[in-house]
């Protein structure tokens, strides 16, 4: 720091604060962030908040209506399902499962994809091509279909569907990372860093990665919403999480059987999925424009 | 006294690429010899495509010469040892905007060369960054700024700071003033001349602006299509040009600045 400060009130905002200032300008994005934060809160503190065990069946309370109904009780805020399980608890655990696993998968896919893409972008020739096109065949098929194929081979189950989805998410990251690395490598500041004696690893982590956040956010949010939808879709089809497990897709398919008698048992998980995907996309969009505007004025 | 920088028979030949779709003719930079003393300014002059930027790139090591050697203080520079070279010969790029990383702040931009090439610890690096920023007329507070927050003149100063931060002996500048307006240009020129006097730098200056060259350079090399047309003291070359090409250049410049 300088010996004397001319401007005493001046402070130097970090990149993160710059991004937050830009992000705050969009009210929709902030609202989305609150919703997403609520869901993340449920993911972390779900077991503490949930009033009941999600698989605990109460034989005396089948299909209890939600508390706002005349026949409802405050004991079961969102009512119970056809086996007498508390819907609120199942919903909380369901969000925990669906969103938590999706976050995990996206992180895994991002790590692997960015690593492969960076290697493909920094190398040339056959090696680059092999790395880049290794997973291209997967790109030709919709992710859900790939997941179904993989689940078909490995067998039904949550863990298998997790593998399937993360595998299906990787190629997008590989491609986009390679693209970004290639375009950045051609720029003059990289040449300048090379003349400083920088090697490839340094170039990637210190020069290119700071310029990649926008792409990572865009791809990350896209992957996150795809992961949420795919996990619940596989659960709904009975290929992912299995019946007693509280997972939003599974809950939907269970609720479908009694949809006429208790519409809320499918409406609530459906709303949760909808809000989750919407908030992820809104936050991602806001974050992208914030990151872009941060470096332009 | 031995020369600071000596270039001997430097040659570069770009092979014509045999591609099915695009035809590229090979470019040849024929044998170039020159010497540069401490505190001296050498200008490289020539039209577009005459190989002057290439010569600059060869000097800093961005391109590898086909033949010939570069000596710094009588020490031969290997084309593969970038570290040895970048401590002593630094480059200022034509577009200061593109040669600065947009994603990281100024402190990090300036810290990069220090981390890679010196053994200074974090606080020493910070001190060095502050000193260098002051040297080029920026404030230490500029450390926290990003590229997009600076004006063109400040960016140019920053590019200069980036070149100076490793205490080099030679600076190669590839048309550093091409994109600047006249007032900022003269500011930067004065700054460079002052620093050159204070620090005793050898300065190689690539340009096609004859006015500036005449103003700041001691000696001049004139290139045409990769051939060295003329070399000598700036005054001599400009007043008594030997070759037709130089004469044409000087005349066209004079017709621009003198009212008829």
Describe this structure in words.
The complex is a heterodimer of chains A (297) and B (260). Chain A is mostly helical and 297 residues long. Chain A contains twelve helices and no strands. Chain B is α/β, with parallel strands linked by helices. Chain B has nine helices and ten strands. Chain B has helices at residues 52-60, 82-86, 106-117, 122-135, 152-164, 182-199, 210-216, 234-239, 244-257; strands at residues 5-13, 28-36, 41-46, 67-72, 75-76, 89-92, 170-174, 202-207, 219-224, 227-233. In chain B, the strands form two sheets. Chain B has a six-stranded mixed sheet with strand order 6-7-8-3-9-10, sandwiched between helices. The mean pLDDT of chain B is 82. Chain A binds chain B through residues 1-2, 10, 12-13, 15, 187-189, 191-198, 202, 206-207, 209-211, 213, 295-297, and chain B through 60-62, 82-83, 86, 90-91, 93, 95, 98-105, 108, 112-113, 116-117, 130, 139-141, 143-144, 146-149, 162.
Task: Give the SSE layout.
The complex is a heterodimer of chains A (297) and B (260).
Chain A: H1 15-24, H2 27-49, H3 87-122, H4 125-133, H5 136-139, H6 143-154, H7 158-185, H8 188-195, H9 200-208, H10 213-237, H11 248-256, H12 264-294
Chain B: E1 5-13, E2 28-36, E3 41-46, H1 52-60, E4 67-72, E5 75-76, H2 82-86, E6 89-92, H3 106-117, H4 122-135, H5 152-164, E7 170-174, H6 182-199, E8 202-207, H7 210-216, E9 219-224, E10 227-233, H8 234-239, H9 244-257
Parallel strand pairs in B: 3-8, 3-9, 6-7, 7-8
Antiparallel strand pairs in B: 1-2, 1-4, 4-5, 9-10
Helix pairs in contact in B: 5-6
Features of the shown structure:
heterodimer; A: 297 residues; mainly alpha; MetI-like fold; 12 helices; 69% helix; B: 260 residues; alpha/beta; four-stranded antiparallel beta sheet; 10 strands; globular
Classification by helices and strands of chain A: mainly alpha
Radius of gyration of chain A: 23 Å
Helix content of chain B: 25-40%
Order of helices and strands of chain A: HHHHHHHHHHHH
| CATH class designation of chain A | Mainly Alpha
Q: How many strands, what sense, and barrel or not for the largest sheet of chain B?
A: 6 strands, mixed
What is the global morphology of chain A?
flat
Class by alpha and beta content of chain B = alpha/beta
Distance between the termini of chain A: 26 Å
> How many extended strands of chain A?
0
Counted beta strands of chain B:
10
- In the predicted model, the low-confidence regions of chain B spanning at least 5 consecutive residues are none
State the end-to-end distance of chain B. 46 Å
Pair with the biggest interface = A-B, 27 and 34 residues
- Number of helical elements of chain A: 12
Rg of chain B is 19 Å
- CATH architecture label name of chain A: Orthogonal Bundle
Biggest β-sheet strands, sense, barrel of chain A: none
Give the full name of the CATH homologous superfamily of chain A: MetI-like
How many domains would you count in the coordinates of chain A? 1
Mean pLDDT of chain A: 86
């Amino acid at each position: 720091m300088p010996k004397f400060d001319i401007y005493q009130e001046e402070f130097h905002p970090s990149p993160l604060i710059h991004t937050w200032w830009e992000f705050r300008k969009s009210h929709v994005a902030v609202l989305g962030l609150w919703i997403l934060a609520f869901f993340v809160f449920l993911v972390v503190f779900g077991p503490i908040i949930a009033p009941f065990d999600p698989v605990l069946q109460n034989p005396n309370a089948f299909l209890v209506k939600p508390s706002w109904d005349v026949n409802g009780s405050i004991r079961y805020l969102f009512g119970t399902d056809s086996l007498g399980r508390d819907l609120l608890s199942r919903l909380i655990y369901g969000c925990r499962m669906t969103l938590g696993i999706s976050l995990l998968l996206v992180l895994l896919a991002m790590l692997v994809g960015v690593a492969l893409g960076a290697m493909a972008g920094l190398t040339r020739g056959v090696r680059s091509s092999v790395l880049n096109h290794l997973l291209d065949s997967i790109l030709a098929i919709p992710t859900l279909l790939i997941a179904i194929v993989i689940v078909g081979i490995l067998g039904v189950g949550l863990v298998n569907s997790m593998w399937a989805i993360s595998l299906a998410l990787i190629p997008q990251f590989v491609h986009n990372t390679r693209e970004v690395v290639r375009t950045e490598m051609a720029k003059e500041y990289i040449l300048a860093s090379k003349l400083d004696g920088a090697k490839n690893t340094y170039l990637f982590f210190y020069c290119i990665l700071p310029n990649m956040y926008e792409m990572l956010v865009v791809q990350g949010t896209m992957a996150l919403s795809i992961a949420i939808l795919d996990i619940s879709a596989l659960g709904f089809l009975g290929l992912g999480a299995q019946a007693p497990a509280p997972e939003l897709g599974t809950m939907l398919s269970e609720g479908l059987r009694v949809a006429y008698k208790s519409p809320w048992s499918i409406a609530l998980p459906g709303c949760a999925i909808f809000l989750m995907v919407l908030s992820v996309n809104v936050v991602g969009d806001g974050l992208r424009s914030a990151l872009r505007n941060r470096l332009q004025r | 006294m031995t020369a600071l920088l000596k270039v001997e028979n430097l040659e570069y030949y770009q092979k014509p690429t045999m591609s099915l779709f695009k035809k590229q003719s090979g470019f040849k930079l024929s044998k170039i010899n020159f010497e540069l003393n401490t505190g001296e300014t050498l200008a490289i002059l020539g039209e577009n495509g005459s190989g002057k930027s290439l010569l600059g790139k060869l000097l800093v090591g961005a391109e590898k010469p086909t033949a010939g050697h570069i000596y710094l203080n009588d020490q031969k520079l290997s084309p593969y040892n970038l570290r040895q070279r970048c401590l002593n010969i630094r480059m200022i790029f034509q577009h200061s905007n593109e040669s600065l990383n947009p994603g990281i702040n100024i402190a990090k931009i300036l810290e990069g060369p220090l981390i890679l090439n010196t053994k200074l610890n974090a606080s020493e690096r910070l001190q060095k960054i502050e000193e260098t920023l002051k040297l080029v007329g920026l404030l230490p507070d500029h450390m926290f700024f990003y590229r997009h927050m600076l004006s063109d003149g400040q960016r140019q100063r920053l590019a200069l700071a980036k070149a100076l931060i490793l205490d080099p002996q030679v600076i190669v500048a590839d048309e550093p003033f091409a994109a600047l307006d006249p007032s900022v240009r003269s500011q930067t020129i004065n700054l460079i001349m002052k620093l050159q006097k204070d620090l005793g730098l050898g300065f190689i200056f690539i340009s096609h602006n004859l006015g500036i060259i005449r103003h700041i350079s001691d000696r001049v090399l004139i290139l045409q299509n990769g051939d060295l047309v003329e070399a000598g003291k700036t005054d001599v070359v400009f007043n008594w040009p030997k070759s037709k090409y130089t004469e044409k250049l000087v005349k066209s410049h004079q017709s621009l600045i003198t009212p008829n």
